[in-house]
Amino acid sequence: MTDLRDAGQATETQSVPTETTGWGFETTAVQTGIARGLGETVGIPIHQAAAFQFETLEQAQEEFQSNQGLSYARLQNPTVRALEERITALERGAATVALASGQAATFTALLSVCRAGDHVVSTGSLFGGSAGLLNNILPLMGVTATITENTPQAIEAAMRDNTRLVWAETIGNPAGDVPDLEACAATAHARGALLGIDNTWGGVGYLCRPLEYGADIVTHSLTKWAGGHGSVMGGSVTVGNRHSLTRNPIYTDGGESSVLNVRGEGALAWRQRWFGAHQLGMTLAPHNAFLLAQGLETLALRLGRESETALALATWLERHPRVGRVSYPGLPGSAHHTLARRYLRGGFGAVLTFEVEDPAAFLARLGVVRIAPNLGDSRTLVVHPWTTTHGKMPEPARRAAGVTPHTIRMSVGLEDVEDLRADIGGALG
Ligand SMILES: *Cc1c(COP(=O)(O)O)cnc(C)c1O
Hints:
Blueprint: H1 4-9, H2 18-21, H3 25-31, H4 57-66, H5 78-91, E1 95-99, H6 102-111, E2 119-123, H7 128-137, E3 144-148, H8 152-158, E4 163-169, H9 181-190, E5 194-198, E6 217-221, E7 235-239, H10 249-252, H11 259-263, H12 267-279, H13 286-297, H14 299-318, E8 323-327, H15 337-343, E9 351-356, H16 359-365, E10 370-371, E11 381-383, H17 395-400, E12 407-411, H18 417-428
Parallel strand pairs: 2-3, 2-4, 4-5, 5-6, 10-11
Antiparallel strand pairs: 1-7, 6-7, 8-9, 9-12, 11-12
Helix pairs in contact: 3-5, 5-13, 6-12, 16-18
Bound molecules: pyridoxal-5'-phosphate (PLP).
C-alpha cells in the first residue's frame, strides 16, 4: 500500500507487488502492506473511519460506478486492504477479501461459485461451522452438498454435472487427514469445478500454499494462527490466478454482458468482495485488521515452535499407557503422514487429538492447559469435540470426522514443553 490516493486508484483485483513475490514467508509477513517514505508509519496504521472524502462530484460518481477505491468502509478500508495485500502475498495469490470471521469467509467462498440448483462436494472431517453451512444454510438456497471420504476416488465418485466446487481442509478437523491436493484439483478441474481449500490449519501459507498445488480458492479463519493470541476474529478468501470459470453458468450466462466478459480475470475476486463485503456486510473492522496483520508478523515463529511442541507431545503420548489412539499427521505411523510430508513444510501443525478413558476427569485435572474452543492461541487449549465443537453433528458424521466420545483435541501453544508434559501427565493420573 502506498498512499490513499494510490489506493483510491487501485484496480479491483489487487496484484501482489512484484518485489514481494520473490521474498520468503518471514520477510513478506513483516514487510508487505507498509508504505515507504518520509514520515510514513513503520507498521500498518489504523484508519478508524467509516467514510472517505471526495473533492468533486465527478470523483464520487466515478467511485460509485467502479467501487474500486475508497468511499465507505463496508466496501474498503486502507487498514483492511493492507492486511489483504499481506495475505495475498503470503499465499502467492491474486487477490484477497478480508472479512469479519472464518465463517463469513467460507460462506462467501461457497456463494461465489454456487447458485440454486448447484452442487458442492466436500470431505468429511470439517470444522463444525463449515459442515453447518453445507448441511443447513446451502439447502435454504437450493444448493446441495455431498460430504464424502477424503480420497480422490471418493471425491471423483461424488462429482455431478452441476458440481461447482470441491471443498476440503488442508489438515482435517480434528482427524488430521491431509487431502491429496493435486489429485483433488485435477478431479475438480476435469469437471469444470473449482477446488476450494480451508487453509486455516496451514497457517496462511506457512505450512502449506494450496494455490501452488492447483487450488483455486483458499480461505482462512484468521481468528486462529494469524491473530495468534486468541484476541480477535477475522477471516479471508484468497483467489489464485489460474482458475477457469468458463464452465460455470453464473459467470458465463448473459453472453456479452456475462460476469466473465465484464469482469475478466478478476471476476471471481470481484464477486467475493461484492457478496462478502458490499452486499452482506460481513466486513472486517480496521482495528481487527491491524491486530491480524500484526499477528501475521510472528506467525512463522509461533507456528514453527507450536508444531515442534505438538510433535514432541504426540510422540510422547503415543507411548503413554493411559492414552488410546493419538492422531497427528507428523507421526510416522499416521495414515496421513505421506501426504502431510508431500504438502506441508516447516512442521505438521499445532493440533493433535488423543483418546483418554475418562475425558471429564482428565479435563478437570488440568492446571496449565485450559478448556476453550479455540485454535492457534498462544496458550494450549483443549476441547472434548464429541460434546462441544462437533456435538450438533449426527453420530456417524462425528465418527467419520475422527471424533469419538474419548477424543480430546489439543491446540498447542507457546508454553515450555516440559510444563505441558507435566500438566498432561498429571491429569492422565
Ligand atoms: C475456526 C475455523 C473456522 C471458522 O472461523 P471463525 O473465525 O470461527 O468464524 C473455519 N475453518 C476452520 C478450519 C476453523 O478452525
